[in-house]
Structures are given as C-alpha cells and as structure tokens.
Amino acid sequence: MVRTSQSVRVLGPSDVTAALAVVARDPVANVFADYRTRITQLDPRWLGGEMWGYHEGDELVSLCHVGANLVPVAASAAACEAFAERATRNSPRSSTIVGPRDAVEVLWAGLEDSWPRPRELRWDQPHLVTTRAADIACDQQVRRTTREEAAVLYPACVAMYTEEVGVSPEVDGGRDLYRARVNQLVGRGWSFSRIEDGRVLFKAEVACASPSACQIQGVYVDPELRGQGLAAAGMATVVATCLREIAPAVSLYVNAHNTAARAAYARAGFEQTDTFSTIMF
Q1: Which residues contact 68 (CB under 8 A, 6 or more apart)?
Q2: 198-207 pLDDT, tens digit each
Q3: Which residues are registered as beta bridge partners of 71?
Q4: Cβ 56 vs Cβ 97: under 8 Å
Q5: Which ranges of the chain have pLDDT less than 70?
Q6: Where does the source fall among the domains of life (predicted)?
Q7: Are 263 and 221 in contact (CB under 8 A)?
Q8: Strand 214-221 to strand 250-253: parallel, antiparallel, or no bridges (unpaired)?
Q9: Which residue, 83, 181, 200, 260, shows the most beta carbons closer than 10 Å to its own?
C-alpha cells in the first residue's frame, strides 16, 4: 500500500539525532544532507527551507531536503511517493531536484503533472568518490584562494556556473547572493585555485563537508588551456588537501557525457559508486 503525506512531517531541532542516523546509512552519498543537518540543527531560521521526514511507525526512515534544492535522502519508493504527494500541495520552491537516480525518478513521476516543465533533465550523472591521494603528481601551484584573490576568482565562478547550468547566476538579481557564496567559500578555506597574472587557470570548491566526506563542485579550467592536464593535476592537489585537512572521503558527481572531465577525475583517483540525477527548472 502506498503511504500518503500523513507519513511525512517537518523535522526540527529535536530530530537532529534521528536525522543523522538516517544520513549515516550512506554518509558519503548523503554528505549534503549531513552538512545541512549539522550546520542548521534543522532550525528553519537557518535551514532556509524545510527538512521533511518519512516515518514507518515511530521510526524515521527517510528524509527530503526542501529548499533551493529538493534532495531525497535514503528514500525508498514509498517515501518518494509520499514526499511527491506533499510537494504537489505546495508551490514549487526548488530550482533543482537532485539525488540518487532511482529516488529522483520516483519523485519526478509524482511531480511532473503539477510542477513546471523542467529546463533540463540530467538522468545520468556518475557519482564519484576517492579516499586516497592520486597516483599522479599534484599541481604545486594550486592552493587555497585568498580573500584578496576573491575578486579575480569571481568571474571564473560565474563563467563555470553559466557553462554548467546554462543560466548565469547573476540573473534575476542573483549577483549579490552568488558573490556572497563565493566569498563565503573563500573565507572557509574551501576554494582552491591556480591564478597567474590575474588569470584563473584552474579552480574548484568544496560545496559541503561532514565528518565523513566532502563534496567538490565548480571545477573549471580556462577554456584556452583545456586538454593540457590542468584539471587532473589540480584535482589531485584538491583531493590531497581535502583528505588531509577536511574529510576522509572526497566526492563529486558529473554528467556522463562529459568524457574529458570523467577522464580527469579518474586520473585523480575517483571511482564511480552510484548514479545521480538532476532536474533543473
């Protein structure tokens, strides 16, 4: 029997321990939810959205982060159906749905008749993980971006985002928010780059981190320098630093058709552990 939204409720600070137990079933794949749970303690004031919990009896068994990103966590088909049923009764608030492909497929099957038409559906995104330093040489010129370099880094971040997502992060008044996000990552020591003479040759950021893993985003190489091995060597440096100073596992996900990026990540030691999907609005 398919459960309804009655099995779903909004979680709060008193649910943090139970939520982290759900996340811990696969802490690397669930690093985003792990990070958001820890940093906000599921307080809506800091979450900027909601965390939904799906229960079987009195046990919390699945989660769904509901904000700019709709992210199912350890979500069975029944949980996804319940999350989708609840989401159809709310105005769409997410610009993306992202997570393990099986869960995203069930969510979208329940939402596609009531939510806006997607701008893009990316069903095949290998989820990659490494827990060891790369066998190739690191790029010794890749290092943490300094606050003084943030202004130089910012245009490369905009270029990467626009190329990857298909829309500039600065549209609809998003410039200040996106610049603040870039500066925040720089300030945390989560931004890595190789900058020469005011030119960003390579860059990447840690998007989120937990005691178990961190997730890389925004990998970018200057278009005129692609195909020269900068991505692989740069990622080797990022991985080595992350493993040493941030988390014991490093993850990311990439579009299956991006063969050049996948080859660079493989050289940097990444291996596929799952398949993610992203639906973009």
Answers
A1: 48, 49, 93, 94, 95, 96
A2: 999 999 999 9
A3: 65
A4: no
A5: 1-6, 91-92
A6: Bacteria
A7: no
A8: parallel
A9: 83
Beta bridge partners of 221: 202
**Residues 152, 147: Cα–Cα separation, whole Å:** 10
Distance (Å, rounded) from C-alpha 36 to C-alpha 31? 8
Predicted local distance difference test score (pLDDT) of residue 3: 44
Exposure string of 54-65, with b = 16+ CB inside 10 Å and e = fewer, is bbeeeebbbbbb
* pLDDT per position as a tens digit, 69-128: 999 999 999 999 999 999 998 766 799 999 999 999 999 999 999 999 999 999 999 999
* Fold (topology level) of 130-275: Aminopeptidase (3.40.630)
Give strand pairing partners of 15.
Answer: none
Tokens of 123: 């069903």
Separation CA 54–CA 10 (nearest Å): 9
| Calpha distance 36→20 (Å, rounded) | 10
Residue that is written with structure tokens 């995203």 in the block:
104
Tokens linked to 114? 């009531």
| Partners of 70 in beta bridges | 66, 97
pLDDT for 2 equals 45
**Strand 96-100 and strand 69-73: pairing?**
parallel
The per-residue pLDDT for 93 is 77
CATH number of 5-116: 3.40.630.30
Judge if 5-116 and 130-275 fold alike in CATH terms: yes
Residue 181, φ and ψ in degrees, nearest 5:
-65, -45
Q: What is the DSSP string of 218-254?
A: EEEE-GGGTTSSHHHHHHHHHHHHHHHHT-S-EEEE-
